[in-house]
Every structure is written in structure tokens, then in C-alpha cells.
Specification:
By secondary structure, this protein is α+β, with helices and mostly antiparallel strands. It folds into 3 domains: about 10-90, 2-Layer Sandwich (TATA-Binding Protein), CATH 3.30.310.10; about 95-255, Nucleotidyltransferase, domain 5 (2-Layer Sandwich), CATH 3.30.420; about 265-305, no CATH class. Helix content is about 45%, strand content about 20%. The protein has helices at about 25-35, 70-85, 125-135, 145-160, 170-180, 180-200, 215-220, 240-265, 275-285, 300-305; strands at about 10, 15-20, 40, 45-50, 55-60, 65-70, 100-110, 115-125, 160-165, 205-210, 230. The strands form 2 sheets. Strands 1-2-6-5-4-3 form a 6-stranded antiparallel β-sheet, with helices on one face. Strands 9-8-7-10-11 form a 5-stranded mixed β-sheet, with helices on both faces. The longest helix has 25 residues, at about 240-265. The protein starts with 8 loop residues before the first strand and ends with a helix.
Length: about 300
């Protein structure tokens, strides 16, 4: 039986979210609630009801699912939609979406010692912007790696995009040239913007701000590229920027996976103690000179690994 999701109803006054679901999902949902610490009961006309502080989740015998409470947003966005509903509408109500044609740009990998730096841009317009929400697009930081990779396939299939992938060795060369990560990022963002803007003739750009505004503006000026650029923090709240964040993250994950297969060793994400230990193991196996082929050498992590 297919998973049938009728349009949801959201009431700000009662803080409720209502959706029709396939009853074949009832047991999976019940197990999920139990795992998350909900107290389960069976009021009249329900299959079950789960309660914990700030959230009540009720599944009626009709298949109507109601979620209520001031803490429901995270539960819906991080569990109910990706794990049960397999659709993403909460927080992306159509009447609130800006359907202006635009390019969104974001990056991934700048905080990870191992692996590439990836900067991605996506162009979307009109119904295509609405469709982003329907295929599960949201800020990649709110998605599992598996979800990022799956949704990235859909975005690459349906939208114009451009990705700048900078592997560790090339990254280290560019960092030496620019002498500053933000200048390197500015060049990468400007390159993505230039490519997509030339392809689409779109001059409306939104990026997640990572430095002073003049950094990207100057990089675009050097390319003689004039656009209407908006830079803001938490720009991934915009669905087009969120789509770019997913493509950038997917490119990073794919690059890291390719690197692990090539060297036959793990490369943890981030710059934690696990990263340092993996780096030390790598150096013992392959020598200190090869570290620049897998890691970003200006990180303090590199000094610790080589000490």
C-alpha cells in the first residue's frame, strides 16, 4: 500500500500539525515514539497516542495523524517527515515561498580537515522552487548523510547547478596563493555564480554569508560580473540555498568516500580527536609528505598530527 499524504493543516493558534498517513506505517511510528521516550496510551478512536514534554502525537483509526505542542517543530522536521512521511512540507507552506527566479550558493568542507572543499550553486524558479520542498530539500545540516545523497540525486536530475570541487592537494595550493580561507571561498563562490549566471542569465543571487560582504563582491568584480547579490546568515532557510547546501555536502561526502577507497583507510569528518588519530595512522602508513594529499594543511590539526 502506498504512503498517502494529504495536504497538511497547520494552526498557529493550537500549534497543531495534521496529516493523513497510510496505516501500514503505524507500527513503525509507534516504535519510533517509544524509542524517543514518548509515553504511549490508547484513547478512544485512536490506534495510539504518544506524549512527552511539549509534544503530543495522536494516530486515529481513520489514519489521521495529529501532532501538537510547542516542541513539535523539531520532531516533525527531523523525525516525522524524513522517517515516516517521506515528504517535506512543514515550514515550506506554498503561500510563504518567494518564487522569484534565483541562484542559491553554499559550501561544505571548510570545517573538515580531511577531504575537499565544495561550493555549489542551484538555479530555480517558480514551481521549481515549490518542488524543492516537495523532494525534501532543507538545510543539509538538518539531514543525515544518506538523506543528503538521495536528495542530491533528485536536485541534480531536475535543476541547473554548478559545483566547484577543490581536492585537498589543490586546496593547499590555492590557500598558499590566497593566503586566507575567506578569499579562497570568495573566489569559489564567484566562480559558481559566474558559471550559473552565464548559463541562465539570472542575476539574482543569494548566498550564505561567511565573511565581510566585500569578499565575494570583490571576487565578482575581478571577473567583471555584475549581479544582484544578497548575503545573509542562515541563508539555508531559503529553499534554493538549501538545495545548494545539499549539493555541496553531497559532493564533499562523495569526495571523502573516494579518498577513503583510494587510500584504503578512514578519514573522519570534522577536526576532532578521531581526526587526529586517523591522521597519525595515515602518516605512519604513508609518510608525512603525503598528508597534504588528503588534508587541509593550514589547520592546527595538521600540526598536531605531525608533532
Amino acid at each position: 500500500m502506498s504512503n498517502l499524504n494529504l495536504p497538511c493543516k497547520i494552526s498557529a493558534m493550537t500549534s497543531s500539525f495534521v496529516v493523513q498517513i497510510d496505516l501500514a506505517l503505524a507500527e513503525k511510528l509507534k516504535e519510533g515514539l517509544h524509542t524517543q521516550g514518548f509515553e504511549l496510551s490508547s484513547p478512544p478512536y485512536t490506534l495510539f497516542q504518544g506524549k512527552k514534554k511539549g509534544i503530543t502525537c495522536t494516530l486515529y483509526t481513520s489514519g489521521k495523524l495529529m501532532v501538537q505542542g510547542k516542541e513539535m517543530q523539531g520532531f516533525i522536521q527531523f523525525y516525522l517527515e524524513p522517517e515516516i512521511l517521506k515528504t517535506f512540507s512543514f515550514g515550506y507552506e506554498k503561500h510563504l515561498l518567494d518564487l522569484t527566479p534565483r541562484i542559491g550558493v553554499d559550501e561544505s568542507g571548510k570545517g573538515d580537515f580531511f577531504g575537499p572543499l565544495c561550493i555549489a550553486g542551484v538555479f530555480a524558479t517558480g514551481d521549481g522552487i515549490t518542488h524543492l520542498a516537495e523532494i525534501g530539500v532543507k538545510d543539509s545540516k538538518k539531514l543525515s548523510d544518506d538523506s543528503v545523497l538521495k536528495i542530491a540525486q533528485k536536485v541534480r536530475k531536475d535543476y541547473l547547478f554548478h559545483i566547484v570541487r577543490i581536492g585537498p592537494e589543490r586546496y593547499n595550493e590555492l590557500y598558499e596563493k590566497f593566503g586566507n580561507l575567506n578569499l579562497l571561498l570568495g573566489w569559489g563562490h564567484a566562480t559558481v555564480i559566474e558559471q550559473l549566471s552565464d548559463q541562465t542569465a539570472c542575476e539574482t543571487i543569494i548566498i550564505d554569508q561567511f565573511a565581510a560582504e566585500h569578499v565575494v563582491e570583490n571576487a565578482l568584480r575581478r571577473k567583471n560580473k555584475k549581479v544582484l547579490l544578497t548575503q545573509r546568515t542562515k541563508a539555508e532557510q531559503d529553499p534554493v540555498v538549501a538545495a545548494a547546501s545539499i549539493l555541496a555536502r553531497a559532493a564533499f561526502l562523495e569526495g571523502l568516500d573516494k579518498m577513503e577507497k583510494a587510500w584504503d583507510c578512514p578519514f573522519p569528518k570534522g577536526a576532532s580527536n578521531a581526526t587526529i588519530q586517523a591522521g597519525k595512522n595515515f602518516v605512519r602508513a604513508h609518510g608525512s609528505q603525503t598528508l597534504l594529499q588528503v588534508g587541509k594543511m593550514h589547520f592546527k590539526t595538521a600540526q598536531v598530527i605531525l608533532s
